[in-house]
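quick q for whoever's on today - can somebody do inverse folding on this one?? i tried earlier but teh output was garbage lol. tokens:
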């Protein structure tokens, strides 16, 4: 079976998107090719054939008349064991740095206009697709019209079944944003998603809530797909550090940093006489001077650069609580309402207790509450009381470490997930 993947992310096991692809497709009896729309060189042990299109190629095609896209074919799998964390963002040019830093809706509009205008439908792209001759396409559904347009183009060119996966709420109108550019993008993206969903034979999602909404609104053939992990054996958590170590590894954008700052403020109160709990933050996001000051006081809260998945696994083993947070700001609450971060499964597999902080309607929090798999906080006014209780009763950590691990064994065993996934791909193999 030949599977063509169309994705925004670089397939590197040192970034989150690439890690998810490897998590899903490892041990598949299949040959892979990928079209991806990010900078960088792939780093994985699964795929050798790639076609790359980037924002800089799009810009250069319009202003310098350069050709869009390039083929990357490797004789061996392009894998190197490295601890370097790879970003999916374009670097170098000043305008890419501004886009990365501020993420304004206006920049998304400009990006969509540039992709619409650029001559990306090249002979080289067609030859790459036709030479690979896929049996099935896997194309995650993004909230970007250029990716949706690419999906439809490849589907039309090949005529084979296309399986998709959606994680963020890019379709509903239950959003809050004062930018007219946001709503301009949103309405056009909704139209594009509706059009593209007709080409998807099957759509995976991680949440029951999103499955229900999209089945109702788009008549989609939906199925729940969980990220998997290694939950063999029993939970190894038997001791709690002194001080208790909380670890947050992930993005601090969409105002997640404000929640981490709030935790730091609470820890200052709890640690007034001595340090009882510390929070370590690992992120690849750029930080302002204000954020650096608030997220690092060298006593209660510590800010570190991003680390590789291997390094993070070792950090988790030496820690007590794996933390997941989402913003409480209305704009971002609604934006992430239906999301289930793949980081949650990493937390479950960490051998730590899991703590999740989010508003009560967040799909990921509701899942963890229903499974009793995490220490869940849906009201920031309860944060001090909950952390103080943990400091005074550290056995809570052992209890919830076991609950997290058992949730993983029930719902996230990687071998069962891959077996079901492979059966679906065989079903739609044309």
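ok took a stab at it. sequence:
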């Amino acid at each position: 079976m030949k599977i063509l993947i169309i994705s925004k992310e670089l397939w590197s096991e040192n970034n989150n998107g690439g890690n998810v692809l490897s998590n899903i497709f490892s041990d598949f009896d299949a040959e892979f090719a990928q079209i991806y729309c990010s900078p960088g060189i792939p780093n994985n042990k699964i795929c050798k054939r790639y076609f790359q299109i980037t924002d800089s190629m799009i810009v250069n095609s319009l202003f310098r008349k350069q050709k869009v896209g390039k083929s990357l074919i490797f004789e061996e799998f392009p894998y190197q064991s490295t601890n370097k964390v790879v970003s999916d963002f374009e670097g170098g040019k000043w305008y890419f740095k501004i886009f990365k830093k501020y993420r304004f809706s206006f920049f998304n509009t400009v990006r969509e206009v540039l992709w619409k205008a650029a001559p990306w439908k090249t002979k080289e792209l067609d030859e790459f697709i036709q030479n690979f001759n896929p049996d099935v396409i896997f194309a995650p559904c993004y909230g970007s019209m250029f990716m949706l347009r690419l999906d439809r183009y490849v589907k039309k060119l090949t005529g084979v079944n296309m399986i998709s996966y959606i994680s963020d709420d890019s379709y509903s109108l239950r959003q809050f944003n004062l930018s007219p550019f946001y709503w301009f993008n949103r309405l056009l993206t909704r139209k594009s998603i509706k059009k593209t969903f007709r080409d998807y034979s099957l759509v995976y999602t991680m949440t029951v809530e999103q499955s229900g909404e999209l089945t109702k609104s788009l008549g989609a053939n939906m199925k729940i797909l969980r990220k998997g992990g290694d939950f063999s054996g029993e939970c190894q958590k038997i001791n709690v550090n002194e001080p208790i170590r909380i670890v947050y590894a992930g993005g601090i954008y969409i105002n997640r940093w404000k929640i981490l700052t709030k935790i730091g403020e609470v820890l200052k109160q709890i640690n007034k006489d001595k340090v009882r709990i510390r929070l370590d933050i690992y992120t690849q996001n750029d930080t302002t001077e204000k954020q650096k000051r608030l997220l690092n006081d060298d006593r209660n809260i510590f800010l570190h650069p991003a680390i590789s998945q291997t390094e993070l696994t070792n950090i988790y083993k030496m820690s007590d609580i794996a933390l997941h947070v989402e913003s409480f700001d209305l704009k971002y609450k609604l934006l992430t309402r239906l999301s289930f971060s793949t980081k949650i499964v990493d937390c479950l597999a960490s051998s730590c207790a899991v703590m999740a902080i989010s508003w009560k309607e967040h799909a990921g929090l509701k899942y963890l509450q229903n499974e009793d798999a995490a220490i869940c906080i849906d009201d920031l006014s309860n944060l001090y009381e909950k952390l103080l209780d943990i400091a005074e009763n550290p056995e809570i950590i052992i209890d919830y470490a076991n609950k997290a691990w058992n949730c993983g064994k029930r719902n996230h065993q990687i071998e069962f997930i891959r077996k079901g996934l492979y059966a679906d791909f065989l079903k739609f193999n044309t």
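fwiw The CA atoms of residues 8 and 221 lie 23 Å apart. also The two ends are 9 Å apart (CA to CA). so keep that in mind when u check it
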